[in-house]
Design brief:
Elements (H helix, E strand, L loop, with lengths): L8 E5 L2 H4 L27 H5 L3 H8 L15 H15 L3 E5 L2 H4 L10 H16 L3 E7 L5 H7 L6 H16 L6 E5 L9 H5 L9 H29 L4 E7 L2 E4 L4 H23 L4 H9 L10 H7 L4 E5 L3 E4 L8 E2 L6 E2 L5 E2 L5 E2 L1 H15 L3 E5 L17 H19 L4 E7 L19 E3 L11 E3 L1 H11 L6
Parallel strand pairs: 1-2, 1-14, 2-3, 3-4, 4-5, 5-7, 6-8, 7-13, 13-14
Antiparallel strand pairs: 9-10, 11-12, 15-16
Helix pairs in contact: 4-6, 8-10, 10-13, 14-15
The structure holds 6-O-phosphono-beta-D-galactopyranose (BGP).
The site of 6-O-phosphono-beta-D-galactopyranose (BGP) has 13 residues, from loops.
Length: about 475
């Protein structure tokens, strides 16, 4: 008997900027993703450098139409191939597909009064195509792809004006797709503001005199995103009465290295900080420890009258999150071996294996995370990103035997089912990069997550052909049996 509830939303997830390509056609404007350069020699553990874009690099990128070293510009050409790709997702039995809307297809600079019809039409057709196969769209409004114009001219989300521009965009989307889309996510990994502020809120840290000033600007930008998310939630509930709006966080569970109370406290501190973002979006208020932190560090956030009421009144309906790895904290962190990821760099956990990119693989951590989140918030949970980035090899007979991926998913699914057995309400699972796409952090495609292989290398050589991997057939069986056959 399957432990997954009837109607469990099995599927996959991608983001516009990592999949669509077609970065400068049909009226699309340039976004922060289009200036992310592929840096072949970057240290896999150095997540800061992977994501970082300096003002000089941004200018350099704006002066070129190069698509070789700016891989997100070409993506996997989902823009032109989405019908065939959706057919493959339907073949696997997807119940849902998580996609994002590129803001710059709708408002190329963010400041326009009239939306770009070609952009609106593209997503309308995409959603209709999904509906044709009874695949429910789960749509992220902001997934690391804000208009670059707003970075250049407004200092990104630090400016209050960007709230209005985003709300204009989200309102247009809600109105246009009200009959096609019921499930919405406002901001992808809203907590990533401090890990890569350029990508998330359009802040170039070099533009600030001190670390403290940059930190203050990032908190200000974050506050603006919280407000924009609440206003969007308000409109969504008005425009689409049965809509469900989710926040989206990066779930990073941190373990203490030992039972030394100091280790336990350090781990608690990290976990508490990780909860900050969903606390605001679920409870509708800033947690006390953050307010204390602001006070102690002279972080002054400008809030308009009514902001706090908005946060309180328009909270989310479900919690979505990405889960890739767990972390370890230790009083002796400085003397410990480190591991990386695109998220955080931390102390190595000797009990866990790591992926080709050094991310610690921890299926049990997913169960702990689900229980943690459910106990804290009592809201439905949706795992909207999870998966393993790996190097795949095409065999002589043309097949891809990705047993390591099957093994990864199987272990994670077992843990989800155990959490469900323990009373957690988990409503869906969308694996990250269900078809190979460009990596968000390293801009590689050789870091593959998909059930479907895309014939492209990191410099864009290849046919763009799609090949079903062994995991494709396995996931199809999992979905068919609602998680019974793992
Ligand atoms: C998350 C992002 C995704 C994504 C994923 C995997 O942080 O929301 O956009 O790509 O991580 O990361 P990467 O692509 O760097 O391997």
């Amino acid at each position: 008997m399957s432990k997954f509830p009837n109607g469990f939303m099995w599927g996959g997830a991608i983001a516009a900027n990592q999949a669509e390509g077609a970065w400068n056609i049909d009226g699309k404007g340039i976004s922060v993703a289009d200036v992310a350069k592929y840096k072949p020699n970057i240290d896999k553990k150095d997540y800061v450098s992977q994501w970082h874009v300096t003002p000089e690099e941004m200018k350099e990128a704006m002066n070129t139409n190069d698509e070789i070293y700016y891989p997100k510009r070409r993506g996997i050409d989902f823009y032109h191939r989405y019908k065939d790709d959706i057919k493959l997702f339907a073949e696997m039995g997807f119940k849902t597909l998580r996609v994002s809307i590129a803001w710059t297809r709708i408002f190329p600079k963010g400041i326009e009064d009239i939306p770009n019809e070609k952009g609106l039409l593209f997503y309308e057709e995409l959603f209709k195509e999904l509906k044709k196969y009874n695949i429910e769209p789960l749509v992220t409004l902001s997934h690391y792809e804000m208009p670059l114009y707003l970075v250049e001219n407004y200092r990104g989300w630090e400016s209050r004006k960007v709230v209005d521009m985003f709300v204009k965009f989200s309102k247009v989307c809600l109105l246009r797709y009200k009959d096609l889309v019921k499930y919405w996510i406002t901001f992808n990994e809203i907590d990533s503001v401090f890990r890569h502020p350029f990508t998330t809120v359009g802040i170039l840290e070099e533009n600030y005199k001190s670390k403290r000033e940059a930190e203050e600007a990032i908190y200000q930008a974050l506050h603006h995103q919280f407000v924009a998310s609440s206003i969007t939630t308000k409109y969504a509930h008005q425009i689409i009465p049965d809509s469900k709006i989710g926040c989206m966080i990066t779930k990073t569970i941190t373990y203490p290295e030992t039972c030394n109370p100091v280790d336990v406290y350090l781990a608690q501190k990290d976990n508490r900080n990780n909860s900050f973002y969903s606390d605001v979006q679920v409870f509708g208020e800033y947690p006390k420890h953050i307010l204390k932190y602001f006070e102690k560090n002279q972080i002054n956030i400008k809030m308009l009258e009514g902001d706090l009421e908005l946060l309180k009144q328009h909270t989310v309906d479900f919690i979505s999150f990405s889960y890739y790895m767990s972390m370890v904290q230790s009083i002796n962190a400085d003397n410990r071996e480190k591991v990386g990821g695109n998220l955080l760099t931390g102390v190595k956990n000797p009990y866990l294996e790591t992926s080709d990119w050094g991310w610690q693989i921890d299926p049990v951590g997913l169960k702990i995370s689900l229980i943690d989140l459910y106990d804290r918030y009592h809201l439905p949970l949706w795992i909207v990103e999870n998966g393993i980035g790996a190097i795949d090899k095409i065999e002589d007979d043309g097949t891809i035997q990705d047993d390591y991926r099957i093994d990864y998913f199987r272990k994670h699914f077992e843990q989800i089912s155990e959490a469900i057995e323990e009373g957690v309400e988990c409503i869906g699972y969308t694996s990250w990069g269900c078809i190979d796409i460009i990596s968000a952090s390293t801009s590689q495609i050789s870091k593959r997550y998909g059930f479907i292989y895309v014939d492209l290398d990191d410099l864009g050589n290849g046919t763009y052909n799609r090949i079903k991997k062994k995991s494709f057939y396995w996931y199809k069986k999992v979905i068919e049996s609602n998680g019974n056959l793992l």
